[in-house]
Amino acid sequence: MRAVDLIQKKRDGLELTKTEIEWLIKGYVAGTVPDYQMSAFAMAIYFKGMTTREISDLTMSMVATGEQIDLSAISGIKVDKHSTGGVGDKVTLILAPLVASFDVPVAKMSGRGLGHTGGTLDKLESIKGYQIEIEQEQFIQQVQDIGVSVIGQSDKLVMADKLLYALRDVTATVDTIPLIASSVMSKKIAAGADAILLDVTVGEGAFMKNIEDARQLAQTMVDLGKAVGRKTVAVLTDMSQPVGTSIGNRLEILEALDILQGKGSGDVSLFICELAQIMLSLANVEKSIEEVRAHLENGLALKKFEEMVVAQGGDVEDLHRSVKVAYEVDVFAEKTGYISGLPALEFGLFAMKLGAGRAVKSDDLDYESGIAFAKKVGQSVEKDEKIATIYSNIAITNDMISEFQSHIMIGDSAVEPKEILEIIS
């Protein structure tokens, strides 16, 4: 078997066999298939696609290139959640402890942010002492003891994905459904959970820019999960504006704490309660939205989050401290009307320039910097009323404020934003 023949076969739109896919992935991890051939193969997939069966074989071939975590020592149905990325996405920080507060175990491996998208691990590392790298045995024991753990992905899981993702990143083959689906699901399958909730973001701040592509990706991943016996549900969620009221690692921790105490933005609280309801149902626990929300208001979800922070070495006093920056600059509305748009991509990139995100993986983060919005899409605003505050350790120039204001869209009539666009099960 030769790699060049398989590249040509896929280039010509033909279907690869399971054996051919396994051979190619094993060879790539072993180093016998070089980067230049695998990049050609990825580009062939980009243009010609893959059948559902091919994507399934690719996913499981990738799973086989690393360890698979055995969570059978944890009683009950173990649930996991994955987001395809966005701006201001602090959902996991709230959702994981909220679900765990109903005695449903949440064993989650998360990632870091890159570019305009934020990473859960970066937010957690803004808490003094929080350890995202713990041994597998400790990870399992913690979920047994308190019901929840959020850590970084083990280097021993899905070796093919690490190599292939780095290659895709520099060969313009990131945004193709077969490779996105196999990347996400290989990691989720290897992580060992029994049930998976997929948050597939849609809009200008997401990888999937339109509902049709997002729907296709979601259905592909749901089918992959079910094919290997994992209960899987996907929700399509709006990423045309940032999630919640903040962008930035420490700011998002503080917003999460507000919501975990029954405060914070009502629409985001409802959105997270709806996601929690779905995750609980995956574990055969049926609760109403009111019953789920009660765990935000009575402190049970917050208690679970604090238990997780302490178990992973975090300082609870530091967890609750306010942001510390050199500059806090308010931005005001230039006219009266209704907020009709807060483009997630533009504000994500603005926050990245403040230091809240990475342009490349090696960039250091400023955990304290970011943006807090006083107004969101659909709300009315008066001229000269505060719309947002910029938190920064670099001086904010008039040009930066003008750039910020240029992204704020104010219209004459109210629009009704919707977080969950569709559920695919």
UniProtKB/TrEMBL annotation:
Its cofactor is K(+). Residues 338-411 form the Pyrimidine nucleoside phosphorylase C-terminal domain. GO terms for biological process: pyrimidine nucleobase metabolic process; pyrimidine nucleoside metabolic process. One of its GO terms (molecular function) is 1,4-alpha-oligoglucan phosphorylase activity. Signal peptide: none annotated. It catalyses: uridine + phosphate = alpha-D-ribose 1-phosphate + uracil; 2'-deoxyuridine + phosphate = 2-deoxy-alpha-D-ribose 1-phosphate + uracil; thymidine + phosphate = 2-deoxy-alpha-D-ribose 1-phosphate + thymine. Its EC number is 2.4.2.2. It comes from the Bacteria. One of its GO terms (cellular component) is cytosol. Keywords: Glycosyltransferase, Metal-binding, Transferase. PANTHER family: THYMIDINE PHOSPHORYLASE (PTHR10515). Belongs to the thymidine/pyrimidine-nucleoside phosphorylase family. Homodimer. Catalyzes phosphorolysis of the pyrimidine nucleosides uridine, thymidine and 2'-deoxyuridine with the formation of the corresponding pyrimidine base and ribose-1-phosphate. This is Pyrimidine-nucleoside phosphorylase. It comes from Streptococcus varani.
